Write the structure tokens for this entry.
Amino acid sequence: MNKPFAPVPFTTHPALGGPGIRHGFFGRKGGVSSGIYSTLNCGVGSDDVRENVLHNRRLLTRTLVNSDVPLITPYQIHSSRCVAVTGPWPAETPEKCDAVVTATPGIVLAVGSADCGPVLFADAEGGVIGAAHAGWKGALGGVLESTIAQMEGLGARRNRITAVLGPAISRVSYEVGAEFKETFLNHDPSNAACFTEGAREGHFQFDLPSYIVNRLRGCGLANAEWTGQCTYLEETAFFSYRRTTHRKEPDYGRQLAAISIT
């Protein structure tokens, strides 16, 4: 059955503005999925009706670039691996990685998230873009730096690259244990600034957005910002893995952050 098309809502950030670049941070509104996936679930790894997920993804590309151009999303594995893209991947065999970059117009790069940090990159002058899925493992392991390096391999210059972190879980909603904090301190003692005491003894609140933006700014980029949106707190706007876990729901949807050279 053919489903109707209507533009779906998304947000942008002025730091990613530039000629020939379109980007959007999409949430959970405007799609055709129902129940716990309501409504713009774009996660092919979820247990949602596959036809609905694929239709939602088409809604996204039509909204962003007014076309059914290929939507390139990686098989995300919480790694630091970034892959340069020149054209569509086979639908059933996406690359296992957590970031993608391109200098090729006419495709849409996107990463999925449901609390982890979706980061979009652009060197508008150089015509190079990127998208990275930065959960704590990927961010700690260097996925942001890998993305920048791959963009430079396509002709970007880091002092022209802007990066924006989209909707992600915020400090107030991200409780972690002492071993988690120790992992970050062992990597760099200055990471202590990203932790505050939690309500429970031996627990801490981790500021993932601050950690991601600080690492980006340490790379010498032109600009790095966060949209300020919390996936956990803004229930009607975004999917959240941690919120789903706390409610003992069987599964969760994923939103996409997308970018394209038009």
Notes: The two ends are 30 Å apart (CA to CA). Helices lie at 50-65, 136-141, 143-153, 178-187, 208-217, 241-246. Residues 10-170+224-261 form a domain with the CNF1/YfiH-like putative cysteine hydrolases fold (CATH 3.60.140.10).
